[in-house]
């Protein structure tokens, strides 16, 4: 299990580096989908299958909307890909920073932290993430409204950032 989790977390870090280093919205959206999928698989490995399913569906729905708007507004004839030299150089800088920080914080990691929370307790009928579902709908309603508002604000920020000076698809004809 430790090797699988290590492989998944390594892919998660590589996906985040791909998102951070790519200026094109097409390839960055692909990297975000990979990061979302690997993050949800890591959550499943730690004992949260329902939470990971909900996060994956919500995140992919939001990403579909943001990707559609940003792709429509930032239509580039020749987008930068992962093989171009500016993207490769920024990926190497980010990977060097991740490796450097990993070397600094290496002493605090132990294999006991890979054990899911459900394996540390007695035998229960329900899994640990089922109790969180009731809390989302009872006392977490305000946080859901705040989260929806933040997602709407993020959509407008992404649209404004990708618009640039050319106005994209909604310019005056």
TrEMBL record:
The chain crosses the membrane at residues 53-75, 87-110, 130-159. It is a multi-pass membrane protein. Gene3D superfamilies: NADH-ubiquinone/plastoquinone oxidoreductase chain 6, subunit NuoJ. It holds the Pfam family Oxidored_q3. One of its GO terms (molecular function) is NADH dehydrogenase (ubiquinone) activity. GO terms for cellular component: mitochondrial membrane. It is an enzyme of class 7 (translocase). Its EC number is 7.1.1.2. It is found in: Mitochondrion membrane. It catalyses: a ubiquinone + NADH + 5 H(+)(in) = a ubiquinol + NAD(+) + 4 H(+)(out). Keywords: Electron transport, Membrane, Mitochondrion, NAD, Respiratory chain, Signal, Translocase, Transmembrane, Transmembrane helix, Transport, Ubiquinone. Residues 1-15 form the signal peptide. Its main location: mitochondrion. The keyword Transmembrane helix applies. InterPro entries: ComplexI_Subunit6 (IPR050269), NADH_UbQ/plastoQ_OxRdtase_su6 (IPR001457), Nuo/plastoQ_OxRdtase_6_NuoJ (IPR042106). It comes from the Eukaryota. Core subunit of the mitochondrial membrane respiratory chain NADH dehydrogenase (Complex I) which catalyzes electron transfer from NADH through the respiratory chain, using ubiquinone as an electron acceptor. Essential for the catalytic activity and assembly of complex I. PANTHER family: NADH UBIQUINONE OXIDOREDUCTASE SUBUNIT ND6, NADH-UBIQUINONE OXIDOREDUCTASE CHAIN 6. Belongs to the complex I subunit 6 family. This is NADH-ubiquinone oxidoreductase chain 6. It comes from Scorpaena brachyptera.
């Amino acid at each position: 299990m430790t090797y699988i989790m290590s492989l998944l977390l390594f892919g998660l870090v590589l996906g985040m580096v791909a998102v951070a280093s790519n200026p094109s919205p097409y390839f960055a959206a692909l990297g975000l989908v990979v990061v979302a999928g690997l993050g949800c698989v890591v959550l499943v490995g730690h004992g949260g299958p329902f939470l990971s399913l909900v996060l994956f569906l919500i995140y992919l729905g939001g990403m579909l909307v943001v990707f559609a708007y940003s792709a429509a507004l930032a239509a580039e004839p020749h987008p930068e890909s992962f093989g171009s030299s500016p993207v490769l150089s920024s990926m190497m800088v980010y990977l060097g920073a991740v490796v450097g920080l990993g070397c600094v914080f290496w002493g605090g990691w132990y294999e006991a932290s890979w054990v899911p929370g459900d394996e540390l307790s007695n035998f229960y009928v329900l899994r640990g993430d089922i109790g969180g579902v009731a809390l989302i709908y009872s006392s977490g309603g305000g946080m859901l409204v705040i989260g929806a508002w933040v997602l709407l604000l993020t959509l407008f920020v992404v649209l404004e950032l990708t618009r640039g000076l050319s106005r994209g698809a909604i310019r005056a004809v």
